[in-house]
Amino acid sequence: MLCSAMLRSQFSVLTHNSALEKSKDALTRERLPSVHPDPDVERAKAGMKCILLRPEIATTPHSSVVLAELAQQARISIIPYQLKLDYDYWTYHDIMSSILPEDAQGEIPSGFAHVGHVAHLNLRDDYIKYKSIIAEILVDKNPGVRTVINKIDDVGEESEYRTFKYEVLAGPDDLNVTLSEENCTFQFDYSKVYWNSRLNTEHRRLVSSFAEGEAVCDVMAGIGPFAVPAGKKRIFVWANDLNPDSYTSMLDAIKKNKVHDYVRPFNEDGRTFIRTAVAELAKTHHAVDIMSKASRKDKNAKAEVVKTIKQPRTFQHFVMNLPATATTFLPSFIGLYPPSVREMLPADAKMPLIHVYCFSTKSDDNVEEGYKICEELSNQLQCDMKPGKMSEGKVEIHDVRDVAPKKRMFCASFRLPEELADLEEKGAVTMHLDVTQPLPEIQNIVAEAHKVHGRFDVLINAAGYILEGAVEEASPEETYDSLNTNVFGVINLTRAITPYMRQQHSGTIAHFGSVGTITGFSESLTLELKDFGIHVISIEPGYFRTGFLNPGARQFTEKRLKEYDQTSVGAVRNALNGQDNNQLGDIEKGCKVIVDVVTKKTRKEVPLRLVLGSDAYQMIKDKCESTIALLEEWKDVTCSTDHSWDAGSSNAPGWLGES
């Protein structure tokens, strides 16, 4: 029960309320007005009001000078007032604090991603048992929320498109959302595309760094959170995404927001897109006429061209917002601007700025993280990269946001180094080749490459990526894709080049033999091609400090079985995580050895196997010793399966390959 000041006049509400607030006699609480209808029904109908007083005020006006004066002047009367606060008054946190047990009060789930009408939770295990009531109250207390979902895996585990598995906790299973960001409207199916509302500030920051009339290549554009707002600023954006659903939603956003003159959508692999977009833009002519606004006074006046904005022939910016794997796309920039492209560009054209997003650890000043990120960039680009100012040719590291207790998202921005732009000046010719293409297409590319110098002296086949997962976890499609790149692609490229080496009666074929199938393939080729003067070598490296263990080059099976966590499979996973960016091998030393061996600078014959790294030496040595021990242990059983032959008989067969 509270006290209230019953007003004698309905016209004195503002005056008396202001006086009582100033004297701190009025009750002031968040979301609770101090002025209420008079508790007497008839007086309330007549528009009479009362002012709630703080609980400490007694039912006598003498406890406050201001109240005493107002009562003495017969302007108010102090009366009891029963305040009733219903469910609508209490906040989500108020209600959860009152219904959750005391041991669950520490970190009550309160943060969620608001995507259109969907609230996206990421509940900790401790709160899963309360998920239904949490979702119900969230819907009640957030008028814009109709559906509440909870993520049940990490982003990207469901598919390479950064989507995720979820469960509906409240409302309909309808994730077709509409939302607005930076005065742009987006409509999409949240279950099929990636969207993060918490990146709104970052989208605005980066787009604000682009100037009107510049050209931007958005390699992993999603549905267009960078591209569409940039288009509204009259910035030309070539926006690409691998996800067909993202591409479809981006088409819709381009149309809805009327930026088709500036934003051009693509649905391609990012690595391929980087190279093809640069070459295509260099020969593309496009301009937009800016028209005058229609005259309100003269309806017959025609709009006139105020100015024309021409699309540049080269990109000023590349955006790569795929923080888990974007750095592994950086090798696509090596040799990106050969003379054939440069001759179509303005003489004063600068190398583009690259904005690549990535994850790293957390610290108070991010200094250590800056060096870690630059080490990764250096590994990918094979070029020394240091943190600092872009104006000084260094890498600017921007702290985007926290994503986990020990994990942050960063944006690394730098200008593409001139020495990486044109490898042809150093004698290299770069061509686009996908080893998973059909053999006739590979043969056509090889034929074009042969025209450059008229011969092939060395072919080096390196494995494309690791598929990490137990046999039971890997799907047939994942297994086929891995073999198609790492095995069949190697075999087809070898098929395409071998005829040229055979005709010139020389050459060296080098296979990285970390894949057992390729080692066997190399041994077979050695026998087949030695009479044509062609050497075959299987290169067996240990762990070298490259991006090979990073996500992207290291792909994960969609299915993950917890049963394997405490087995040798789990041990291998943990070991790979520990090895990443801590590998023993020095890539520069390794590359020099490979070049010296295959070009015979060592003055030795090309060996069948080349082991690189002390770790590889020890692993292979241990394997050989254990294999010999196994052979000796089972020698009697092994030899007992032969036909009986007279000792020394000339008919006794030897090994199939013996002469």
From TrEMBL:
PROSITE patterns: SAM_MT_TRM5_TYW2. It is found in: Mitochondrion matrix; Nucleus; Cytoplasm. Signal peptide: none annotated. The keyword Transmembrane helix does not apply. S-adenosyl-L-methionine binds at H203, D241, L242, D269, G270, N321. One of its GO terms (biological process) is tRNA N1-guanine methylation. Its EC number is 2.1.1.228. Pfam families: adh_short (PF00106), TRM5-TYW2_MTfase (PF02475), TYW2_N_2 (PF25133). GO terms for molecular function: tRNA (guanine(37)-N1)-methyltransferase activity. GO terms for cellular component: mitochondrial matrix; nucleus. Residues 112-418 form the SAM-dependent methyltransferase TRM5/TYW2-type domain. InterPro entries: MeTrfase_TRM5/TYW2, NAD(P)-bd_dom_sf, SAM-dependent_MTases_sf, SDR_fam, TRM5-TYW2-like_MTfase, TRM5/TYW2-like_N, tRNA_Gua_MeTrfase_euk. Keywords: Cytoplasm, Methyltransferase, Mitochondrion, Nucleus, S-adenosyl-L-methionine, Transferase, tRNA processing. It catalyses: guanosine(37) in tRNA + S-adenosyl-L-methionine = N(1)-methylguanosine(37) in tRNA + S-adenosyl-L-homocysteine + H(+). Specifically methylates the N1 position of guanosine-37 in various cytoplasmic and mitochondrial tRNAs. Methylation is not dependent on the nature of the nucleoside 5' of the target nucleoside. This is the first step in the biosynthesis of wybutosine (yW), a modified base adjacent to the anticodon of tRNAs and required for accurate decoding. Monomer. Belongs to the TRM5 / TYW2 family. This is tRNA (guanine(37)-N1)-methyltransferase. The gene is TRM5.
